[in-house]
Amino acid sequence: MGDLAKIFKAYDVRGVVPDEFDEEIAEATGAAFIRVTGAARIVTAHDMRASSVPLAAAFARGAAAQGADVVEAGLGSTDLLYYASGSLGLPGVMFTASHNPAKYNGMKMCLSGARPIGQDTGLREIRDLVAAGVPAQDGPVGKVEQRDLLAGYAEHLKTLVDLSGIRPLKVVVDAGNGMGGHTVPAVFDGLPLEVVPLYFELDGTFPNHEANPIEPANLRDLQAAVLAHGADLGLAFDGDADRCFAVDERGEIVSPSAITALVAERELAKYPGASIVHNLITSAAVPEIIAENGGKPVRTRVGHSFIKQTMAEVGAVFGGEHSAHFYFRDFWFADSGMLAALHVLAALGEQDGTLSSLLASYDRYIASGEINSEVADQAAAVARVRAVFTARDGVTVDELDGTTFTGDGWWFNLRASNTEPLLRLNAEAGDGQTMAAIRDEVLSIVRTEEAK
């Protein structure tokens, strides 16, 4: 049945179709999902990839053969699946490979209430059961029903953000031929927005550009359209529309850390004194702004399972990541790029200024962005960096996730990839010259041995 260990990742299932992931695996996973979760009823949704419909159908067959009923929500974004799981109180499965190229597909699974399933919370057991072969059950086969949840999803999101007082705005939206083209019209319906759509046609071959807005090249069309149309802002969604990036009226890319700070400020106005979670790669401005607004900043490792777990532990109302994943307690602690977009629209529309002026106070530092270096021995590279920087006065080190070095007015983090021979660098400082000097010195040390 192929190399299951290769496609069952830490938090989801993902592989090339059909070479690594096919309908046989999807059907067996559907059966194993029911066995492991004990669910009598589940909900599924899928993205626009050509392989998503047959894979979702195969999963439903496997689940129904174990006696479980299946609610098929059909086309949807990943946060629509979380809405379905939360509002219906059912375990759920989303068929998507998010921002990955067309040849990939995968599954994101959750328990009822959109609680994530990862290797330590059932995914390993599901994989092992698929590998061993799922026993048949003797009882009746479950029913499969189709149910359109798009309107309910759109209405629910609009109950979480007050958009009643916003002024008319012109917004360019780049859906990247992904699921934003399906969900944006429903969510934005009835709002005072003039929408300029880019690539709303659902097409899993991604004919215009990759649906991965964390890569600046994939935002160029959006930036150009914002300027050409004199828009107030631009929004870009990834393939499964659970991440959202913004571009201001000047065509400049907005840092996800600035959006984290903006939404944190708004959530703290609603929930004074609450905890807000941020991962350690977000700008140092984020915990500063949280504290300035009376909130409690809580730092966590990179990765949605750590964010969600920490949010639940401390009762946080919001969490943000540098990768533009935004998590809301009011949305079952799940992430929703669309909900973050509504917060940005509300904040901009409640006042008369531009987005760049609104966010100016949140952009306090200069960041390098994430820089990858191919390094055969990551531990040795980090040790070389540690030897250099810990010899300097006032430098502190912590190892919450990778290794973070903090000095006077700067910090940087080195993290090894879990799946590739890569070392990831993120650096930030109070000015561009200091940031560039730190960045270049660290890269020089990291890459020294590799060049020999």
TrEMBL record:
Keyword Isomerase annotated: yes
InterPro entries (UniProt xref): A-D-PHexomutase_a/b/a-I, A-D-PHexomutase_a/b/a-I/II/III, A-D-PHexomutase_a/b/a-II, A-D-PHexomutase_a/b/a-III, A-D-PHexomutase_C, A-D-PHexomutase_C_sf, Alpha-D-phosphohexomutase_SF
Domain Alpha-D-phosphohexomutase alpha/beta/alpha: 6-131, 152-251, 257-365
Boundaries of every Alpha-D-phosphohexomutase C-terminal domain copy: 370-443
Gene3D superfamilies assigned to the protein according to its UniProt record, in alphabetical order: Alpha-D-Glucose-1,6-Bisphosphate, subunit A, domain 3 (3.40.120.10), Alpha-D-phosphohexomutase, C-terminal domain (3.30.310.50)
Cofactor: Mg(2+)
Keywords attached to this entry: Isomerase, Magnesium, Metal-binding, Phosphoprotein
GO molecular function: intramolecular phosphotransferase activity; metal ion binding
Superkingdom to which the source organism belongs: Bacteria
A GO BP entry: carbohydrate metabolic process
PANTHER family: PHOSPHOMANNOMUTASE
Homology family: Belongs to the phosphohexose mutase family.
Record-given protein name: Phosphomannomutase
The species this protein was found in: Actinocorallia herbida
